[in-house]
């Protein structure tokens, strides 16, 4: 408003813009993908535009990453037919939660990793890996690995992880680490060989470098951020391991922040978990195992220093909600996600408590129930962020 004048647009002008497919497409292309998903049912014209191949291709070329809209959580069940069923827990009240999410390419697919809109999945019955975009039901089977004489299939570790950042490249990489050596080699468990699959070339590449085996024991739980995969290793208790794979595999270490209390010893920060949100790598940890305080540290792109982002008292968090009792053995692995919002009051973490999925907002200090799964999450490796994306598998 300028000079107190209320600017309005005549209904005829609005209708003229919205009835023009070209103008409407230009408007829709500038919206977050989650909004596009919500706008599909508006009318047939909008649905046709949003789902058209030309629109999806054009939107894919816009380098953005939407914030997570929810979580895929594997259901705990003794029934084999439900073993690969996932529930969708929504962060947005406009999007309903769903039970028994089944993937279009295989009903027995297991999620291995989630990375900026794409899922790395594995089907045990076929022994195949797939890249899958659940928003547009697009999938691609990865070509099988070809092993050499010094790469044993049956012994040692075999881990997969995924690297994808659409703001930097439309192509993704899949990183495979495995024990290097033969079954007759006494040093079988001492070295790791790295292979990478690129969606740009469509083939696996083998790197000549050999890495220490002990650093990779937590690689399968790694978090991709800022061109590198980050994880905790049991053998490196005071560091985050970082594998840079932008050009050439480079392994480095990031030291933990000092504890906020006077606690010292070998078990400092022994309860911990990594997350990434927006442009930050987040470290959730306790100073010591039985602490009732959570420290959330933030690392920016420069890898300069950890800074304290949030400090959470577990008892104070649940005190206004006596029906949701926080157990004394509550651990960081029960935190499923940490999301940094555009505003501090929009930032929250998602926790699992006796089968209930709860959202805790740091600044507002409020707890709300997002979903009741009825049973606890199977493990920390069975919860994956869902990010709306038009990226091609």
UniProtKB/TrEMBL annotation:
<dbReference type="Pfam" id="PF07734">
    <property type="entry name" value="FBA_1"/>
</dbReference>
<dbReference type="InterPro" id="IPR050796">
    <property type="entry name" value="SCF_F-box_component"/>
</dbReference>
<dbReference type="InterPro" id="IPR001810">
    <property type="entry name" value="F-box_dom"/>
</dbReference>
<protein>
    <submittedName>
        <fullName>Granule-bound starch synthase</fullName>
    </submittedName>
</protein>
<dbReference type="InterPro" id="IPR036047">
    <property type="entry name" value="F-box-like_dom_sf"/>
</dbReference>
<dbReference type="InterPro" id="IPR006527">
    <property type="entry name" value="F-box-assoc_dom_typ1"/>
</dbReference>
<dbReference type="Pfam" id="PF00646">
    <property type="entry name" value="F-box"/>
</dbReference>
<feature type="domain" description="F-box">
    <location>
        <begin position="22"/>
        <end position="55"/>
    </location>
</feature>
<feature type="domain" description="F-box associated beta-propeller type 1">
    <location>
        <begin position="91"/>
        <end position="259"/>
    </location>
</feature>
């Amino acid at each position: 408003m300028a000079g107190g004048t209320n600017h309005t647009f005549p209904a005829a002008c609005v209708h003229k813009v919205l009835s023009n497919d070209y103008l409407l497409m230009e408007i829709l292309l500038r919206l977050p993908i989650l909004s596009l998903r919500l706008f599909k049912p508006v009318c047939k014209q909008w649905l046709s535009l949003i789902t058209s191949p030309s629109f999806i291709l054009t939107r894919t070329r816009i380098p953005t990453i939407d914030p997570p809209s929810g979580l895929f959580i594997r259901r705990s069940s003794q029934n084999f037919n439900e073993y690969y069923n996932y529930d969708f827990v929504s962060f947005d009240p406009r999007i309903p939660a769903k039970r028994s999410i089944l993937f279009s390419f295989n009903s027995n697919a297991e999620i291995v990793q989630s990375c900026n809109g794409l899922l790395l999945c594995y089907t045990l019955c076929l022994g195949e890996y797939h890249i899958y975009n659940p928003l547009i039901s697009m999938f691609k089977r990865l070509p099988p690995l070809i092993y050499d004489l010094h790469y044993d299939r049956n012994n040692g570790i075999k881990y997969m992880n995924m690297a994808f950042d659409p703001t930097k490249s439309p192509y993704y990489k899949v990183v495979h680490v495995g024990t290097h050596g033969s079954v007759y080699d006494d040093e079988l468990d001492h070295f790791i060989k790295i292979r990478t699959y690129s969606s740009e070339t469509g083939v696996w590449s083998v790197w000549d470098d050999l890495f220490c085996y002990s650093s990779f024991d937590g690689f399968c739980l790694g978090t991709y951020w800022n061109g590198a995969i980050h994880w905790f290793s049991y053998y490196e208790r005071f560091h985050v391991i970082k594998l840079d794979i932008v050009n050439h595999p480079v392994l480095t270490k990031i030291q933990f922040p000092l504890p906020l209390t006077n606690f010292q010893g070998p078990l400092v920060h022994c309860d911990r978990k990594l997350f990434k949100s927006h442009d930050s790598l987040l470290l959730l940890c306790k100073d010591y195992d039985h602490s009732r305080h959570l420290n959330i540290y933030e690392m920016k792109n420069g890898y300069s220093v950890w800074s304290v982002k949030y400090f959470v008292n577990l008892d104070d968090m649940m005190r206004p909600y006596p029906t949701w009792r926080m157990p004394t053995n509550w651990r960081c692995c029960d935190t499923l996600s940490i999301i940094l919002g555009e505003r501090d009051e929009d930032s929250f973490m998602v926790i699992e408590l006796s089968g209930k999925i709860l959202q805790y907002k740091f600044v507002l200090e409020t707890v709300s129930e997002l979903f009741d799964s009825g049973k606890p999450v199977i493990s920390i490796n069975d919860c994956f962020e869902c990010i709306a994306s038009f990226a091609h598998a």
